[in-house]
Structures are given as C-alpha cells and as structure tokens.
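Hello support,

Our group uses your service weekly, and this is the first time we've seen a run hang past the timeout. The protein is BMP family ABC transporter substrate-binding protein. I'm not sure whether the cause is the sequence or the server load. Input pasted verbatim:
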Amino acid sequence: MKLRISLILLLLFSLLGCEQMQTNNLNKVGLLVYETVNDQVWGTKGYKGLLKIQSELGVDVDYKDQMNNESAIKQAVKEFDEDGINLVFGHGVQYEDTFNSLSKQYPSMHFVFFNGDAQGENVTSLNFEAYSMGFFAGMIAAYMSETKQLGVIASKEWQQEVVGFKEGALFQDSNVKVDIEYTDDWDNVPVAQNRLDSLLQKQADVVYPAGDGYNVPVIERLKEEGKYAIGYITDQSVLGEQTVLTSTVQHVDELYVLVAKRFQEGNLTSGNLTFGFEQEIIDLGEFSPLIDEDFIEKIENDIKRYKESGELPNEKE
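Update from on-call engineer: The timeout came from a worker crash unrelated to the input. Re-ran successfully.
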C-alpha cells in the first residue's frame, strides 16, 4: 500500500514538473540592436521593452548593440545560447535573414524580429499595422496645413505608415500635395536634413520624419523654422506642443512584454504576427493644443470606430 502511494505521489510530481516546464519555459531574454539603444526612438524603445520584461517577469536579460553585420549577429547568438538565453529579439527587419538561417542550428531558442517574413518553427516576425496610424496622422497634417504642401522624410519605400499618411491626407483634403523624400537609411541625419531643405523649398509646412535616428533633429529644425511636425515611434510632444501636432506611436516596449509572456506560457506562435490599434500597440500621441477640439474629437471617434470595425474613415459606407 505504501509503495502504491509513493508511486502515485511520484507520478503527480512528475506531471506537475512537466506542466511547469511547458508553461514556464522562459529562461533568459536577449536583445540585439542594429545601432544603439540611446537614440531616444526605436533603439531606446527596444531597450525599455527588455527592462520591462526583466522587471515584470523576473528573468535575467542581456543586450548587444551595434549588431549590424552577419558575423557579429552569429557570434552574439552563440554567446546568448551559451549563457542560457532562449528568447532573442532582433530589433528590426535587419535580422530576418540571419535569424531564419540560424533557427535550425538553435532549436531550443526562439527568434523574434520585426516587419519581415518568419520561416521556421522557432521564428516569429512582429509586424505593426502601420498604415492606419499613418492615415490618421495624414488627416491631421492636411487639416492643419496652410500651404497645402505636406512633406515626408521616409527611410524605406516599404513603410506602410508613409502610404497611409499620404492617403489619409488626401482623404481629408484632396487639394493638398504630399511630397515624399527618401533617405534609404534609418539614422542618417545629414541626408535627412538635406531632404528637409528640399521640402521647405516646396513650401511644406507639415513634415513627417519617419525615421529613427534623424526625426528628433528634423523636428528641432522645424521648430526653428516655425513649421509643424508629426512625431514618430514615440510621443514626441515633449519636443514642443506648438510644433508637434501628434505622433504615430508604436508601443514597442509593451509588445516586448506581451511576446515574452506568450512565450513563457507556451503560447508564442511562429510565423508573422500583426499588432495595431486593436491591441493598443499602435496609437496616436498627445495632440497639440493648436488643433481645435472638435477635430480632435472627430479623430478620436474615427479611431474608436476603426478599433471596433476595422474600417478607416475612407472605407465607411
């Protein structure tokens, strides 16, 4: 009888142990950043997300920046694996190819990157529904423009927030013109300033600097010129509420915690996942007091309706 009870207890402990392994399999978390965590925009957001994971989930974390070539990434992943890290964030689309190729080599590690195509059972791509935030920002820019000339300084041609910005502006006011200048780089300040010169010569009075490392210097320049800006990634109203009309905000730090929790619970799926207004991962920042309250109320109602129906203002019947 005692032997039978002992066997039953042993079986119960074994089952509980297996369940714990399945639902609490987050050991340590690593982060790779292409440039720096001190850019106060994209890189900083990723670092804050890593710290949130550490504080909220109580796990050890580590990061490496300047991870901008394949050999450096491979060496960093090797070191992460040796240190027991089993959830790795590559903070950008730049990690797509390397993470996809490394996934089979490190089957116990889950790889996460942004805005790409995940391939493999242990690879996930986090994609922002960026078109919608750009659309609403474009509406605001068109409403506030006096010259009817809007400008965008974009980093890459594939940025859906830029497409949304243009279409939202034209929906709000079909008489506006939207000029888009590309830098082909997320951080090149001199090139972005050169693109801004071109937009100002075309009488643009609202500019959307949709890049990581250069949007703050561009906004500061717009402030000097007495023009308006739409902030990017973070709520940049702190740069001047008389300049920044609103910001297209991506709550990357909150998304990091959400993903880590899913992984910890055994619910993080591979493949391409999309997050937007509905999950409160994307939003608009503070509105400038220069925008009249009736129009702000309209935008807020449009966003609420979009969350409920998935329809943008130009899609309503």
